[in-house]
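for the writeup, i need someone to sanity check this before i put it in the appendix. the sequnce is what the collaborator sent (i think, or maybe the updated version? ugh). structure was predicted straight from it, no edits. if anything looks off just tell me and ill rerun, i have time this weekend
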Amino acid sequence: MLLAVISGIIWWQIDPSRAVWIAITVLVVTCPCALSLATPGVMSAILGLLAKRGILVARGAAIEGLARAEHIVFDKTGTLTEGKLSVHDYLLWQDGNWISSAITPVTDGAATPATTLSMQLCAAMVAGSLHPVSKALASCPALPANEIACETLIEDAGQGMTAHYLGNVWRLGRVEYVQALHGQTIHIPATLRGRSLCAFGDASGPIALFSLTDSLRPEALVMVKQLQAMGKQLHILSGDNAQVVKGIAAELNLSDAQGDLNPEQKYMAVQQMQKNGARVVMIGDGMNDGPGLSIADVSVAMGQGAPITQARSDVLLLSNRLIDFSYAVMMCTRALYLIKQNLYWAVAYNLLAIPAAVTGLIEPWHAAIGMSLSSLIVVANSLRLLITTTKNNAD
């Protein structure tokens, strides 16, 4: 508007009959339609595309974040793996030794009344949790029917659960977490070393030890190859057994994998990457991923994850398909490229049209046509995102 007024005043001195029309021409030419449509057009297209694949974007800044990120951090259980854990083996602590038990209710054996009560309480504890380990134990025939209820149940993210009942305290979770309750070292049998373990005990000592198995998601390797082809650096940060994590990393051909991490250590690992200048995307599913997700440049939650993790994430992967995550990264990269193209075109149009309008080379109707065409070009360029995707799907 200021440029139009200045142009009108100058032309009033040169040729008053053209002054008003040149001022109007400048005003029409500088209408920021193309500039204002450059980003919303692409954003509408990309949000629709991702929604069709079961990917919900809670914050628009996540689109640019996914495109620009150099490092992508994965949790293991429930993210790279199915998260459908099952009990592979089950040991009871009796007379200072681990006794292997059949996967049948403990009450079917010669267990003491105290052991039976403890295992009933274990069943009550897992019934009150949404963690994948708790779900696995809940479906394990080794636990008796849940006939009692915990007086209090506290879940410590990344560690386990603590329950109070009749003045006693029980813990279920990581071996170190249970050891801290009774102060005794839990010796892991050689047959269970290198596996995912869940311990159960009270203030007097260990009670049971569960060995768990999980399977890698079938599309995980394809996703890893696609992300690596885009130049992304991939990392695994997991609270699971370090040897188990290394095994998963080997299957996926990943060199950076850390296990036995608590939530604070995951947070610090992500923070260190950012201190080194990296833009980080983190994808996880549990409460133990919360601190890391909170500091990541873009946080992605699995659809099967904990509700609190989903609520606080920038992107929600409802489909639970890792191949959709790599698709999102690829399409967000394309979207950012198209936004830049639109902005460059809008700026270039103004750099060419404004001098022509100010010098009187074009008339108002020329400016109106040019302004409309520039807006249509920006919209058409934004729609290329949909056309390219449709073609790829057809192929």
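The longest strand covers residues 86-94. The two ends are 49 Å apart (CA to CA).
thx in advance!!
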